[in-house]
Design a protein that fits this description.
The structure holds three protein chains of three kinds. The relative contact order of chain A is 0.12. Chain A has 13 helices and 15 strands. Chain A has three domains: 178 residues, Rossmann fold (3-Layer(aba) Sandwich); 65 residues, no CATH class; 110 residues, Rossmann fold, CATH 3.40.50. Helix content of chain A is 38%, strand content 20%. Chain A has a seven-stranded mixed beta sheet with strand order 3-2-4-5-7-6-13, with helices on both faces. A five-stranded mixed beta sheet of chain A has the order 10-12-11-14-15, sandwiched between helices. Chain A has a two-stranded antiparallel ribbon with strand order 1-8. By secondary structure, chain B is an alpha/beta fold. Chain B is 37% helix and 18% strand. Chain B is built from eleven helices and ten strands. In chain B, helix 1 packs across helix 7. By secondary structure, chain C is an alpha+beta fold. The chains are: A alpha/beta, B alpha/beta, C alpha+beta. Chains in contact: A-B, B-C. The interface between A and B is large, with 43 and 38 residues. Strand 9 of chain A pairs parallel with strand 2 of chain B, so a sheet runs across the interface.
Chain lengths: 380, 270, 64
Amino acid sequence: MAKKVALLQGNTACALGAVYAGCTFFGGYPITPSTEVAEVMSEELPKVGGKFIQMEDEIAAMASVIGASLTGAKTLTATSGPGVSLKQELIGYACIAETPCVIINVMRGGPSTGMPTGPGQSDVMQARWGTHGDHAAIAVAPASCQEIFSETVRAFNLAEKYRMPVQVLYDEIVGHMRERIEFPEPGELEVIDRAAPTCSPEDYKPYDAKSDTDVPPLAAFGSEYRFHVTGLNKAADGFPTTKASLVDFEERRQIAKVECPEARADIESNEEYLCDDADVIILAYGSTSRSARYAVNELRAEGIKAGLFRPITLWPFPEKRVAELGKQVKAIVLPEMNLGQMIFEVERIVKNDCKLAGVHRVDGEPINPGQIIDQVKEVI
Amino acid sequence: MAYDYEKSIRPGKLPHIWCPGCGHGIVMKGLIRAMDTCGLEKNNTAIVSGIGCASRLPGYMDFCTLHTAHGRAAAFATGVKMAKPEMNVIVCGGDGDGTAIGGNHFIHACRRNIDMTYVLLNNHIYGMTGGQFSPCTPTGAKASTTPYGNPDPIFDISKLAIGAGATFVARTTAFHATQIDKLIAEGIKHKGMSVIEVVDDCPTTYGRRNKFRSVVDMMKVLKDTAVPVAAASKMTAEQLEGKILTGVLYQEDKPEYCAQYKQVIARAQG
Amino acid sequence: MSAKAEIEIIERYCKGCAICAEFCPTKVLEMDAFVVKVANADACIACNQCELRCPDFAIKVHKL
């Protein structure tokens, strides 16, 4: 049987991906250029018995999503840079309380209101370090409408598996672009559901980690399990503690659960295009990677051995592979629609192993292949 | 036999953190009796709070409890209730938490008329941070950030709730202990957003700055300034000067939010 | 006059605020340094006011 296909906007693909992943609750607030995600969710969720609520502000939207998640629902909110700035308080809450949820950030420029209808990639560091305090972060960056669908599904899987907020970052270009989408059949993409506790309700502790990288199961409010949730540093039983050893263990575990080698191998996802023999790598993510791929083809036609390395998972950053590539190639060129964010992460990793040059734009226009080609030629 | 509060409290959690004479414990006892009266099941009841002294209340209660971020309790609670409407949802917190940083969430929860019971402990001050003035600190009063007297007018929480659309609004004081559980129980039974404002005392950070000699003095003021609504209707404006009205201040039957959304689902599913 | 109730004080919980003693209509309770004590047990009329107003869960009134 032929697959169902449609011509869809990225934001629509995102909402349909969320429903595919089993999302049953959306709490949102309107903001350009993400609003279509909310609009489609308001239409689709009640059809499957799910709940859509438009809250009074971005913070409330994030709060509703965490509250709903604690009842066992898979939950989503969608916003853009300024909205994420507002949500940061409660993204931190979801981190420390280890509550799964997915946050869509359809990136625009900034700071502040900036250019709401123009694309940007200025929230890469916000996704990593936006909320205060030490914490892990998972963020993925799809580059096409099809990939928005599948990465949204994967974001839900990662949120449920690692019990934390996961951010999906794509810019206005991919969000508003229309492309052909093939809908996966049910069961075709992996869908991970939240692990249920196996102990008796009397013995249940919401943060009862078996190791320093463990993700303990989260019970649902309204089940036979009863527990306490707080944003304070807490012990295994969920109640506040100021005991140094317990605080230290929990703080480190909540980072290690994402950054230990096993978790990184599971979470990281990269695309490599003609990297094997490359002398120069264009490292690009999101819509910019589309210009980068074009540039690679043009450069190859001219006899320059260029390759594209595209992190699909932005956080945790693919440190190991980027370090290897840094040793292999003469130069890395990194185009991004900001004045330098990921490039500093790459600089930290490759050090002086190869040359590193950026292509940056913050004028609301996409980076075109010609700009990337020029920079590559200049560097090599 | 004396009333058994401890069946509702998590083992080993008492004594609580509240200061000597703080009325929050009196309100918590009232809440326990009210929940008991209404037969709320532990596994099917969420108690949600924000940040502050009053927001520490859920930690003691042997229910599904959620101690959120400053001001955000009503918004978290809305998520819980929407996702699982069969759960009973109680929100509790203080005046600064609920009407300053959380003011927007408070009024919109009222506007939606979502079925939850918000117990707002109004002790006129930010206690946990050491006594800064709140939107409910009386004009002229001293707080750590109003050393020359408070220039701000106050929020009347109950009027705010009524104006915003809550369909059950009541007020009492920490002195009127038996009224606390009666009003909270009525609020729980009411289908829609109920707000029960309990005017409370903070001897540590409010009382000592505002010439109250003791906790008992503060309790006497609560006793003397409270006027039941029925009695107030026979009093002149002059007689009511400086008084607080107690009892059920407003009640109305209106469509409840989750019930409304159930109809949305029915329409979507054709 | 005989007591209508037996008042149990949980001293460990009492923070000595004195609300109970002050508002007891028959002056059954008294403050003893930082905790309350039953000073006049026979006068208790089992009104339960002390228990209701104890913020610290430190008083139990057992009706006889």
